[in-house]
Every structure is written in structure tokens, then in C-alpha cells.
Amino acid sequence: MGSILLSGLMSIVLISYSELAFLAINPKIQVISPWRIPEFYNRFPGRTALLDYATAKGIPVTSTKAKPYSMDDNIAHCSYEAGALEDPSIPAPDDMWTRTVDPRAAPDEPVDIAILFEQGLPVKLCVADKLYTDSLELFIALNEIGKNAGIGRIDIVEVRRNLFWSDYGLLTYALRIAK
């Protein structure tokens, strides 16, 4: 989640990009941000306290004290941040990447694909003898192709370091501009 720091004369407020987008659509939305509520951030001053709480309550989480990465994982992308990842001089651990093969271990063989774009959007994908026209199946197929080829890893340093995976996004963008 990206954020924008807005500073005023009397206060400094951290607002997320998502929050701004939702408020632009509907200014009446009430945003509940636990990290801004004193009862929450006083009880949970850091990731260790949150991990202890999850363990005590039997809540399954992927983070551990040894690997306290925050991970936002969905079909469109997976992002990681926190812990040792905050230091850009330290390479990301190989076992952190759950959605892509290590590029050094990916097969060194081409995969021929063809994508038909209509009005800038991919509407058909041909891979070997398979044809995909359903947008979800096309999305999943491109993610799998990218995963196996070791594509999609992005390391960005903004206010802090974030690492992303997005095979579909990178593949469709690269193919779209390659016309």
C-alpha cells in the first residue's frame, strides 16, 4: 500500500492511496484505520505483538518472528515489506517469493504466445495448442507462464522498500507496447 504524507500547520496525517481513491468515489465513506486508534497501537506497538496475539488466538498468519514480512497476495500481484526487507542493501531471501520461480532457475527455453488486444485490453491468448478468451483464465494463464519463466519480480524503494510480483501486469504491458 502506497501512502502520501500530507503535512499541515498543526498536524501530520498519513493517508493511503487506497483511502484517497475510495474517498474520491464516495466522500461519505468512513475509513477505519486501526493503526490510527490509540487503543490499537498502544496494545500492538509492533509486528511481534501482533504475531504473539495471532498465536495466542490461533489465527493463522504467514509471517513469523524470523520472517516478519507483510504480504498482500492476490491474483493481480503479491507485495512484501517489513523486517529485513526495509534495508535495500540486503537482498530479498529466495524463499520469500511464493509466486515466481527464481529467474536463475527458470528454464532457458522460449514460450511462444500470441495475445490479441482490443481497445488496449487483452481479449485472446494463444499458447501452443491452447486458446484462452475468458478474462480470468487468460489472467491465470499469463501468471503461470510468467511464474515458470521467472518474470515479474520488482524491487522498489519508495519511502521504504517494497517488493512486488506481477506476471500478468508485466507481460501484458510489455506485449502491448511491443506492437
What's this entry about, in short?
The protein is an alpha+beta fold and 179 residues long. It has helices at residues 17-25, 38-43, 47-57, 135-149, 167-177; strands at residues 3-7, 12-16, 70-73, 78-81, 113-118, 121-127, 130-132, 153-157, 161-165.
Topology:
Blueprint: E1 3-7, E2 12-16, H1 17-25, H2 38-43, H3 47-57, E3 70-73, E4 78-81, E5 113-118, E6 121-127, E7 130-132, H4 135-149, E8 153-157, E9 161-165, H5 167-177
Antiparallel strand pairs: 1-2, 3-4, 4-9, 5-6, 6-7, 8-9
Helix pairs in contact: 4-5
Q: How would you explain this protein's 3D organization?
A:
By secondary structure, the protein is an alpha+beta fold. The chain has a domain at 72-179: Alpha-Beta Complex (Argininosuccinate synthetase, chain A, domain 2). Helices cover 29% and strands 25% of the residues. It contains five helices and nine strands; from the N terminus they run ββαααβββββαββα. The chain has helices spanning 17-25, 38-43, 47-57, 135-149, 167-177; strands at residues 3-7, 12-16, 70-73, 78-81, 113-118, 121-127, 130-132, 153-157, 161-165. The strands form three sheets. Strands 3-4-9-8 form a four-stranded antiparallel beta sheet, with no helix packed on it. Residues 1-14 have low confidence and may be disordered.
CATH superfamily of the domain at 72-179: Argininosuccinate synthetase, chain A, domain 2
Helix amount: 25-40%
- The helix/strand series, from N terminus to C terminus, equals EEHHHEEEEEHEEH
Can you tell me the CATH topology of the domain at 72-179? Argininosuccinate synthetase, chain A, domain 2
Average pLDDT over all residues? 80
Largest sheet report: 4 strands, antiparallel
> Which segments are poorly predicted (pLDDT under 50) over 5 or more consecutive residues?
1-14
Give the CA-based shape: globular
